[in-house]
Structure formats: C-alpha cells, structure tokens
Design a protein that fits this description.
4 strands, two-stranded antiparallel ribbon, globular, two-stranded antiparallel sheet, Sulfite Oxidase, Chain A, domain 2, 2 helices, mainly beta
Length: 136
C-alpha cells in the first residue's frame, strides 16, 4: 500500500499517513502528509474564493472570506484526528496530528445570534460527478 501519496479520486481518494516517520520529538504530521479520507469534488471551482455565510436568526447576516477568518485566527493547540474506518490493514494511516490555528464558531456567532436561536446548521459543497465505488 502506498503511504503519504494520494490514491484514487473524489469520494474514493485516500492518503494514508506513514506514522513511522513520527518520533517523540516530532509528533505533528506535516500538512502535505496529513491523512485524506475524501478529496474535494472535481465539480468544485477551485478558482472561486470561498466564503462562509452566517444567516438565519442573526442580528445581521455575515459573508466572511478566508482573509476575514485569518484575521481572527488564533492557536487552537494540537489535535489528533482519526477516521472511523482506520484499520491495521491500512497501517492505521488514517490518523494524523495537526497543530491547528482557527476561529471558534462561538466567536463567529457570539454577538450575532437572536435569543430564539438554539441550533446551527453547517453545510457546504457536496456534489460529486461520480458515486463512490467503496462507500454507501
């Protein structure tokens, strides 16, 4: 099995991280070797800037760009992520650790939500030209 290399495409794309390259001194997985469970859809226009829209029961709707988010980003610490389908057969390569920076969703919603709001729906682009050969 290939490690640290994307195999497949779209919904069936995988990158299995080579955990043998980690050491007690280097526990963070380099970004380019962080495991991949699914690649972005070929239908997604990578040339268009991404935005986050905050709407619904808010005082004022927001459209945030990645630049807006970067301004408010702060260290979030190290986080371990593992795919629920990680197995010995894949050398447990669907597991990685990242030292993340980001913006907590609570910061985005803190002063914007109306009192009646008690749920948040997060959605994104999820259209693929081909069905998965391995997933339901």
């Amino acid at each position: 099995m290939a490690l640290d290399t994307i195999i497949g495409a779209g919904l069936d794309a995988r990158l299995f991280s080579d955990l043998s390259r980690l050491s007690p001194e280097q526990l963070v997985t380099p970004t380019e070797k962080f495991y991949t469970r699914t690649c972005a859809s070929e239908s997604l226009d990578g040339g268009k800037p991404w935005t986050i829209k905050v709407g619904g029961l808010v005082q004022e709707p927001l459209n945030l760009t990645s630049e807006d988010l970067e301004k408010g980003a702060k260290p979030m610490g190290m986080h371990l992520m593992e795919c629920s389908g990680n197995t010995r057969a894949t050398r447990f390569g669907l597991l990685s650790v990242a030292d993340w920076i980001g913006v907590p969703i609570s910061d985005l919603l803190a002063t914007q939500i109306k009192p009646r709001m008690d749920r948040v729906m997060v959605s994104g682009f999820d259209e693929y030209p081909m069905k998965s050969a391995t997933s339901i």
